[in-house]
Each structure stands twice: as structure tokens, then as C-alpha cells.
Amino acid sequence: MLRYTLMRLGVFAACLGAVWGLVYFGVVPRGLGASNGMWVVLLALVISAPLSFVLLRKERDRASESVVRRVDTMKANLEANRTQEDAATDASAPRAQGRTSTS
Known about the structure:
mainly alpha; 0% strand
């Protein structure tokens, strides 16, 4: 997951550099007034999102498989704990019923 995040940040940084260069050389408008910095960042975000969606598909699939494995492991551990609790409750139930009937 960290690898995918770093790769996504890399795509954004490359887009930011490219957009900044295009704005610097006047190919893309500079924005309105003092909004130049925000314009460059927003344009880089808009460009990097679909690029990372296409370019990082395999890495995103690997990251999602890792997350699915972790969730499945947690579910299995929770179910094992629940089963142990149920077994402990079932084991102590006859003793508790025996005490209440003799009282």
C-alpha cells in the first residue's frame, strides 16, 4: 500500500512539474491574479488522477489484494475468538444452571 501511495505521489509530482513548466513558458494560462499557485496544483491534480488510474492499475490491484488478505485474516481471527467465547460460555452454562436449580 505504501508503494502505491508513493507511486501516486510520484505521478502527481511529475504532473505538477509539467504543468508548472507549461505555465512558466506561457503555453497554459497563468490563472487569475494571485491564483497562479492554486491553478497549477489543481490542474496537476486533474491531470494526475486519470493518469494514475491507468498507469498504476497493476500496483493498485496488488494493493487491493493485500488489503483483502488483511481483512480476511481479521475476520478469521474474530470468528475464532467468537467461537472460543461461545465454547467457554457453553462449557460454563451447565454449571450455572445446576447452581440455580439447587438454590
